[in-house]
Every structure is written in C-alpha cells, then in structure tokens.
Amino acid sequence: MLGLSTFGIARRNLQRRPWRSFFLIMAILLFSFFLFAGSVLSLSLSRGAESTANRLGADIMLVPEGFDPHVDSILLSGKPSNFYLPANAMENVRNLEADIGIAQMSPQTFLATLSASCCSYPVQLVGLDYDTDFIVKPWMENTLGRRLLDGEIIVGYHVSGWPGETIKFFGKNLTVAGRLEQTGMGFDAMVFMNRATIAMLSREAERIMGRPLTNDGSLTSVIMLKLRPGYDSVAAAVELNRQLNSKGIYALFSKKFVNSIGASLTAVSWIIRGGLFLLWILAVLIVALIFALTMAERRGELGVLRALGASRGKLLRLCLTEAFLISGYGAVLGIMLGGASVMVGSPMIKDALRLPSLLPSFTGLSLLALGSAGAAVLTGVFAAAFSAVRASRVDVHEMMRGA
C-alpha cells in the first residue's frame, strides 16, 4: 500500500468510506453552489442598480428654457416629444465645466413619430452620442455588445421588431440590431440610434413636414450631466440657471427618488454579500468539524500507517490530498448545479424581487465560476488543515502503550 502514490491512497480512502465522503462532498457542494449563485445574483443586482440609477436620470438635465419643467417625467415615460436646445448649448456648458464639477456630459436628440410600421402608437426616437453616453449605453452594451452603426437601431421591449428585421421611419428603412430588456419605464417604447442616423431622419422629417424642426439647425434636445463626487446637484443647477437662462437653457436637478432607488438596490446587493460572508464562516466551521470528527475516528488507521513506516509529512499530505479531492468534487458539482439554477431561475428571481438585474457576460460568469470553485476548494483544504496537522502527529509508541 505504501508503494501507491499519495493521490492513489487518498482516492481509495474516499471510496472505502462512501457515506463519509458523500457528506463531506455535499457540504462543499452546498457552499460552492450558494457562493456562485449568490455572487451572480449580487453582481447582477449591483449592475442593475448602477445602470438603473444612471438610466433613471443624470445629476442634472439641461433642456430648453421655458419648456415644461416636468421634462424629466417625459424622459421617464417615453412620451413622444420634439424640443431642441440652442445650437451653442454644448459650448456654453463646457465653459462652466470646471466651476460646477462636471464629470460627464452627453447630448441626446429626440424626434417624435406619430405612426410607424412597428407600432400602433407613437414612439420616441432617441439619438445618442455613443462616445459620451452614460444613460442608455450600459443597457445597450448588454444587449448588443458593440456600438451602433449608421442605419441601425435598438428597439425597446414594447416596440415590434427583431434583430435583422427592418423598420421604416420617415420613409427610411432602418435595421434592427437588437432589443432592450423590459424596464417597466418609458425606455420600453423608445427606439435608439446614433447621432448620424437621427440627423438623417431629422432631415427627412423636415422634408415631409415642409418646415425646419428648429430655427438654428440644432439637433440637441437635452444634455445629461453627471457631477464629480462631492458636488451638489441642486447648487450646480442653480448656478447653471443663473448663467444660462438668458441663453435659452434651463437646468433640472435629479429627483430624490432617483438616488433613493439606486441606494435601495445597492443595499440589497450588500445584504447578499453579507449573507455570503456568513455562509463562508459557517462552511468553514461545518467542514472543520466534520474533518475533526473524521480524523479522530481514523486515529487508529493513521497509527497503523505510521507503524508501517509512513512519515508525518506523508500522513499530512495524505489528509490534505483527501480534503483537496473532496473539495474539488464538491466544488465542480456545486458550480454545475449553480450554473443551471442561474440560467433557469434568473428570470423568476428577477420577477419575484421586482428589481432590475443585468446578468454578467459569459466571460464574467466563467470567471465567477472559477473564483467560486477556487474559493470552495481552498475553504475545504483550509478547514481540514488543522485536523490534518493533528492527525499527522499521531504517536505510535503512545498508541502501543495505550493498547
């Protein structure tokens, strides 16, 4: 027997005590399952919270002065609207960028259509500056995975059209590149495109209507601003209004509920992370206890191996190898079960929690799986290490005297 490798002996020991091995593997399996599934859920909610907080509104929105002060509600409801800022609005804001702490600034163009082949009701066409956008871009990247090309659109959940199909707006056929997931907000009835495409449609709209959309040729409806940390949106909006109202620009600061929703979603994510930490502590204690009882039961067996010439180092490696094999089996099975559960149960969990979530990409899920498996294996070996060290120190002469 001593001629066998440590790995071979360890594997035979596990086969010789199948029930003991089964319960140890189950302990690691449950830990790796909840670690992986919980990590995916936590990350999905975190990404959903971040994207939702951005999607619900920027810190400040710049709209035409004198326009409906509830334009933020129009942005959220998706009500088709045409309104445009002065042509030099971006330059005016850039002049104040350092004074009010602007971190990001992105223009959007709105164009309303009263009829379309895709819809039985009006839709809002939205042109985005992909390089600077931080409102829709996170959701767009999750849906499409690349930037929009000229003549391509991404449709909201309630807009008919599937990738590869074409939809006609103002006499122009546009290719559907992707669909957004349901958001329960105005985004579901919006159609998104890049700035070049919205400019082309605006020219067609002007030709069809026989009049220009704006007097100065502006194609910017709103400018979304995100401030640097530590800057107050209310104070910044007041300063912007003081300097820009005379130039036809009005600043709206985001509503409190926007930040509170984001904070609530983030809190849920932190609760899940806290639960995972407590689960890790519990797993370490349970696995350590099971290994301690197992090693105490096998004290005689290990003493025989010592009497046959096995060194203490050999016994230590044997015990740790058994722990590694058990942890490896449990981790792999737990990750496989967790992956299947995530794929099948993610929509149900999302509906049950009624919270937005964005599943990580395939690469992200793979990294989470590898990380969870590695953590489960290390946890099993770490939990067994103390018992393994004690077992390797069995004294043959003391056992003989006791016998």
What does this structure look like?
This protein is an alpha+beta fold. The chain folds into 2 domains: 6-52 and 262-402, no CATH class; 58-253, no CATH class. Helices cover 58% and strands 14% of the residues. The chain has 13 helices and 9 strands. The chain has helices spanning 6-16, 18-56, 71-77, 89-94, 97-100, 137-143, 195-209, 233-244, 256-297, 299-307, 312-353, 362-392, 396-402; strands at residues 60-64, 102-113, 123-128, 152-155, 166-169, 172-179, 190-194, 222-227, 249-253. It has a 9-stranded mixed beta sheet with strand order 5-6-4-7-3-2-8-1-9. A hairpin with a 2-residue loop joins strand 5 and strand 6. Helix 9 (256-297) runs parallel beside helix 12 (362-392). The longest helix has 42 residues, at 256-297. The model is unreliable at 398-403 (pLDDT under 50).
Flag low-confidence runs: 398-403
Q: Helix amount, in percent?
A: 55-70%
Shape, per Cα inertia axes:
elongated
Mean pLDDT over all positions: 77
Radius of gyration: 31 Å
Q: How do the SSEs run, as a string of H and E?
A: HHEHHHEEHEEEEHEHEHHHHH
What is the number of E strands? 9
Please give the domain count.
2
* Percent of residues in beta strands: 5-15%
* Tally of helical runs: 13
User: Sheet with the most strands?
Assistant: 9 strands, mixed
Q: What distance lies between the first and last C-alpha atoms, to the nearest angstrom?
A: 24 Å
Spatial order of strands in the largest sheet: 5-6-4-7-3-2-8-1-9
SS-derived structural category: alpha+beta
